[in-house]
Amino acid sequence: MNAPWDPGRVAFSIDRSQSTPITAQITSTLRTAILDGRLRPGTRLPSWLDLAAQLGVSRGTVKAAYEALTDEFLVFSAGAAGTRVAERQAPRPVAVPTIDIPRPLQDLERGFSLKPLPFQMGVPAQDAFPAKIWARLRTRACRANAMAPLSPTDPRGEPELRAQIAANLAITRGISCHPDQVILTSGYKNGLALTLLALGAHGRTAWVEDPCYPVARQALEIAGLKPVPVPVDAKGIRVDHGVRAAPDAALAIVTPGQQAPTGVTLSPERRAALLAWAAREEAWVIEDDYLGELQLGGRAAPSMAADDRSGRVIHVGTFSKTISPTLGLGFVVAPLSLAARFGEVAGYLNPAPNVTTQLALADFIGDGHFLRHLRHMKALYRERRDDLHARLDKDIAVEAFAGLAVIAHLPKGTDDLALAKRAPDLGIAPAPLSVWSARPADAQPGLVLCVTNLRKPLVDKACDALAALIGDRGATLVRAQAA
Ligand SMILES: Cc1ncc(COP(=O)(O)O)c(C=O)c1O
After folding, report:
1. Which band of pLDDT confidence, cut at 50, 70 and 90, is reported for residue 396?
2. Among 213, 220, 232, residue to substitute to test ligand 1 (most atoms within 8 Å of Cβ)
3. Is 94 within a domain?
4. Which of 47, 198, 278, 308 sits at a 20 to 30 Å CA gap from 88?
5. Per-residue pLDDT tens for 192-244?
6. Cβ of 260 less than 6 Å from ligand 1
7. How far is the CA of 55 from the centre of ligand 1 (A)?
């Protein structure tokens, strides 16, 4: 396969006025000639020196062009026999499957990477994200990380960050833990996955609150556990119901700080009863502390992990609400008896996410930005919630403040799922309340109105859209403009 070089087959035109470097121009000319067959496999390219002289460029420029083509497997160096055009496989057409693969979370998310609409859950105030500070800390972390010697990183997360989180939890959530009990994750869902892997409770039953974050129920099923719904009242989860329905459950997933979605705080008696059950049955309590200290009415209640004398609570935290889901960072605090097990599972199956982001977050907490940011967010969300509340009918519609949202109940029989599906056409994205219930068909319908991104200028328009969405009932739900 030795074909001679035929200069007539390749027309070089070097243009020094172009912004494209000369090396790239030579590479491109030769690439095109190889791909369209003018240069056949085996053709020997001119030596660097000959082509450089012909084109009036340096020998190094031609060498760099040949190296680029070698990297693309279009030519190869044949030693003393020079550089030759490589044999190529005829490209095989790639068959694109025609079936539609459904995207995940269809019932919970209206789509991915969309601009958040008023009332949408799950996105903290975008206008209050500390972008400047974060960009500075991240750049610094990126530089430090790039210069660091290459050695395996701790799968539990960077020691600096785990120490900062442990120190911060002592202040904000009353938790006393060793940094090696803290394992970094990419958020709540990942923390739950890590926990379920570490506990190995496949095939067992698990209590879930009713209503609860739908992700928890579904996640348990995917992980091979059987969720048992346990009702929630004004004091939180009905532990007595749980004990009757599934006394030997392997675990309970609860949101004791601010129940999702009702917002109630688990009462001291219920906390004690839940911990006593877990200690008695050697069950685990998975504490989803998704809002952490972000409690709009004063100081948040301490976490359950703070009261856990028997080492049965696995505390799952996230920075999705307190800073942003774009960080993709959360953590688990494992009880002492499970800390080594969690470390092993992280090491083999679930290592901590991106180191640069972890280092930036360690500085964000360590330099005092985190607590300052939390204080600012609480004040901002309180203001946004009150602005919305002033526009909603207090007597009829507003059942409760729930976490960072206001819950508006709708009359029985209202299809809240259909309303929520239609809402984005009107420029808003409230969540349907019934899907949080274990039996949506029997549940109280309603809309969850998240306030995080409800800036003052948006309130009137968003409330008008809400009134239009719920039609006849709008008159009782949303007050007139002047209110
Ligand atoms: C009850 C509850 N837990 C946890 C989360 C946070 O999940 P993640 O950290 O995976 O973003 C949310 C977010 O909406 C939530 O509502």
Report:
1. very low
2. 213
3. no
4. 47
5. 999 999 999 999 999 999 999 999 999 999 999 999 999 999 999 999 999 99
6. yes
7. 62
